[in-house]
Write a structure and sequence with these properties.
The chain has 456 residues and is an alpha/beta fold. It folds into 2 domains: 109 residues, 2-Layer Sandwich (Enolase-like, domain 1), CATH 3.30.390; 267 residues, Alpha-Beta Barrel (TIM Barrel). 37% of the residues lie in helices and 14% in strands. It contains 17 helices and 17 strands. A 5-stranded mixed β-sheet has the order 12-13-4-16-15. Helix 15 packs parallel to helix 16. It is globular and about 65 Å long.
Length: 456
C-alpha cells in the first residue's frame, strides 16, 4: 500500500536521510576506547554499587487534576537511591502496588528481567499502568546508578528536543475553535489536534441516524460497529464546514490532527474521512476500536487521510498485527499502556520496518512525560508527543533538577542528567494529592504471594 501524501509530508524526506546518516556515522564511533570506558565509569554514582543494588520498597502518591488523576510511584533501594514511575492517567494505584512483593529484592538495573517477570500482570489500556510504572522507575534507577540518562541506555538519541502537540478545549463554533488553535501556535506549538465529533451535531435535526430515544452517551458503552449510529450527509457537511472554518483561521500549513468522532459505524467513518481529505488532516485517530484490524484496514484503504490508533494497546505483538496487515498509516502508543520505555521503543522500531511513523499519546505528570521524552529521543520514526497540561499552571513545578520551562516553543529538551533527569518537589506534590499520604509505607503489600508461573 503506497504511503499517503500527508504521511509522507509529515515525515519528510530530509528527516529520513538526516537520521540515517547520523545513525550510520555514530555506529563505529559509539564503541568506547579504553580511556572512554574509564571516563564512563567515572560517572557512576559513587553512593551506589549497581551490581549490588536491590529494591527495598515501593510507595505511591496520587496526584489529582494534572489535569488527570495520576498515581506516581517511588521505588526505593538498599543503597539510598530512588526511582520514579507513573501509573497511566485515570488508573488505580493498585495496579502498581500488587507488583511490590514480586519485585522486592530484585536489582532494578535488570530492567528487562523485571519486566518479563511482571508483564503478565498488565493488559490493554489502563490495566497496564502498574507494569509500565515499575518499568519506568527501574530505568530511572538504572540511569542514576550508572550516571547516564535513560536515552543513552536505549542506544543513544536521534534528536535533542521533542516536538509536542496539544489537544484544545472545544468550541461548537469553527471560527472560535480556530482562534483557540491559533493561540496554541502563538505559544510555539508546531503541531495541533482538535476534537471533531458527533457531539457537535447535538440538537441539529437531520444530522444523525440512530435508534429513537438513544442518548448520545449510551453509545459510549458499546463499541462503534454496534451502536446503530450513522452520520447523514447533512451531518458530514456540517462537520466539514466546521473544519474549513478552523483552517481559515490557522491556515493549511500547520499539521492538524483529529480525534473523538463518536461511536459511529465503519461506513460513516469512511464517508466522514473522505469529506475531510480537502482539509489536509494530519491523521484521524481511533475511528473504531483498535481490535478490529480488518475493519481498520477497510477504512485506511478507502481514504486518503492518514488513519491512526494505538493508545490502548499493551505490548508490541498487537501493534505488529496492525503494521503487518497495513491496517493503519500511523501508530500511537501510550507509553504508560504499551509496556513502558523499552517496549515502546521496540514498537516504534517494528513500525519503522513497515514504513509506519509513530506519534505518542500522553496525559500525565512530568514523571511519565520525561519517560516519553527519553523514548522519543531514542526512536527514529518518532513524529510528535502529546501534551495535555498546558493549562495546568503548577504542572512543571512538580519536578526539580531540570531546566525550566520544560516546554518551550512547542518542544521539550532531552535531559542529560542521569535516569529520567528529574526529582520530585515534595511541597508541590503534597498540595495536589487526591488521596491522603505522600509516599507512605505500604507494608501490607510486602508479602502478597501466588504461584505466578505460566508454564508447568
Amino acid at each position: 500500500m503506497p504511503m499517503k501524501t500527508m504521511v509522507r509530508e509529515l515525515i519528510g524526506r530530509r528527516s529520513f536521510f538526516r537520521s540515517f546518516s547520523m545513525a550510520a556515522g555514530t555506529g563505529a564511533a559509539g564503541l568506547l576506547s579504553e580511556p572512554g570506558v574509564e571516563a564512563a565509569v567515572q560517572n557512576v554514582n559513587r553512593n551506589s554499587v549497581p551490581s549490588q543494588l536491590k529494591i527495598s520498597d515501593l510507595r505511591v502518591a496520587v496526584v489529582k487534576e494534572a489535569p488527570m488523576t495520576c498515581p506516581i510511584i517511588r521505588i526505593d533501594t538498599n543503597q539510598g537511591i530512588s526511582g520514579y514511575g507513573e501509573v497511566r492517567d485515570g488508573a488505580s494505584k493498585t495496579y502498581a502496588l500488587i507488583l511490590k512483593s514480586r519485585i522486592l529484592g530484585e536489582n532494578p538495573c535488570n530492567v528487562d528481567k523485571i519486566f518479563r517477570k511482571i508483564k503478565q500482570f498488565g493488559h490493554h489500556a489502563r490495566q497496564a499502568g502498574g507494569v509500565c510504572a515499575v518499568e519506568m522507575a527501574c530505568w530511572d534507577l538504572a540511569g542514576k546508578a550508572y550516571g547516564v540518562p535513560v536515552y543513552q541506555m536505549l542506544g543513544g538519541k536521534f534528536r535533542d528536543r521533542i516536538r509536542l502537540y496539544a489537544d484544545t478545549t472545544e468550541s461548537p463554533d469553527g471560527t472560535e475553535q480556530g482562534k483557540r488553535l491559533k493561540a496554541r501556535m502563538e505559544r510555539g506549538l508546531t503541531f495541533l489536534k482538535v476534537d471533531i465529533g458527533i457531539n457537535l451535531l447535538k440538537g441539529k435535526p437531520g444530522t444523525l441516524s440512530m435508534p429513537l430515544r438513544l442518548e448520545y452517551s449510551a453509545g459510549d458503552r458499546v463499541p462503534h460497529p454496534f451502536t446503530g449510529v450513522e452520520i447523514t450527509d447533512k451531518g458530514i457537511a456540517l462537520l466539514s464546514d466546521y473544519v474549513a472554518a478552523i483552517r481559515e483561521v490557522i491556515g493549511m500549513e500547520v499539521p492538524l490532527a483529529s480525534d473523538h468522532f463518536g461511536h459511529i459505524g465503519v461506513n460513516s467513518c469512511i464517508r466522514l474521512a473522505r469529506a475531510m481529505e480537502k482539509h489536509q488532516l494530519a491523521w484521524m485517530e481511533d475511528m473504531i476500536p483498535w481490535q478490529y484490524t480488518d475493519l481498520l484496514k477497510k477504512i485506511t484503504d478507502a481514504v486518503e487521510v492518514p488513519i491512526l490508533t494505538g493508545e490502548d494497546i499493551y505490548l508490541k505483538e498487537e501493534f505488529a498485527k496492525l503494521v503487518n496487515a497495513k491496517a493503519v498509516d500511523m501508530i500511537h502508543p501510550d507509553l504508560a499502556s504499551a509496556g513502558g520505555i523499552l517496549e515502546t521503543k521496540k514498537i516504534g522500531d517494528l513500525a519503522m520496518e513497515g514504513g509506519v511513523p509513530m506519534a505518542m499519546h500522553f496525559a500525565g505528570t512530568p514523571v511519565s512525560f520525561m519517560a516519553n521524552v527519553h523514548c522519543a529521543a531514542a526512536t527514529e520514526n518518532f513524529l510528535c508527543l502529546e501534551h495535555h497540561s498546558l493549562e495546568v499552571p503548577w504542572w512543571e513545578d512538580m519536578v526539580t533538577g531540570i531546566p525550566k520551562p520544560i516546554v518551550k516553543d512547542g518542544f521539550a529538551a532531552v535531559p542529560e542528567r542521569p535516569g529520567l533527569g528529574i526529582e520530585i518537589d515534595e511541597e508541590i506534590i503534597k498540595q495536589h494529592l487526591r488521596d491522603p499520604g505522600y509516599f507512605d509505607p505500604t507494608p501490607e503489600w510486602d508479602k502478597e504471594r501466588s504461584n505466578d508461573r505460566l508454564w508447568s
